[in-house]
Specification:
This protein is an alpha+beta fold. It folds into 2 domains: 33 residues; 108 residues, no CATH class. The chain contains 2 helices and 9 strands; from the N terminus they run H-E-E-E-H-E-E-E-E-E-E. The strands form 2 sheets. The protein has a 5-stranded antiparallel β-sheet with strand order 2-3-8-7-6, with no helix packed on it. A 4-stranded antiparallel β-sheet has the order 1-9-4-5.
């Protein structure tokens, strides 16, 4: 009986110690070593693009973000959000479906790529009609 009780105490102690080590490591990484940077910007000028055959049209905008450096590219993460309105944000990529009063339907996809010193925002409509997007506000969050 003493052996069973002793074994149970040892197993519980090892379990608690291993959990404590894990929690401490996670806490130190998230509070002491991680840095954050956030920026907001509005894109109101879009450049029309297409492939070599003049098909597959989309719009893009290049945004310079000087804090987005090589260190973040290699060891961090970048998340971008689109403001739907003053109180609501949608993470990118954002896919929305639309229909107009004539029954025409299409899907708009807004996504992004980032590079050392900035990012490119893309707007693609599934019908490739060439409707220029209006101004869109974004928020970018970076951590490293």
């Amino acid at each position: 009986m003493k052996t069973v009780a002793f074994t149970a105490i040892v197993i519980m102690t090892l379990g608690l110690v291993s959990c404590e080590r894990y929690v401490t490591t996670v806490r130190n990484e998230t509070t002491d070593e991680v840095r954050w940077y956030g920026a907001e910007f509005c894109v109101d000028y879009w450049t029309a693009c297409c492939d070599a055959d003049g098909l597959n049209g989309y719009y893009k905008a290049d945004v310079r973000i000087y804090n987005l450096d090589y260190n973040i590219l290699r060891f961090g993460q970048v998340n971008c959000y689109m403001y739907v309105n003053a109180d609501t944000q949608a993470p990118l990529p954002c896919v929305r479906h639309y229909e107009n009063y004539r029954g025409q339907r299409w899907t708009r996809t807004i996504d992004y790529e980032y590079y050392n010193g900035g990012m490119t925002i893309y707007v693609t409509d599934s019908d490739f009609a060439g409707d220029v997007p209006g101004p869109i506000a974004f928020r970018v969050m970076m951590s490293w």
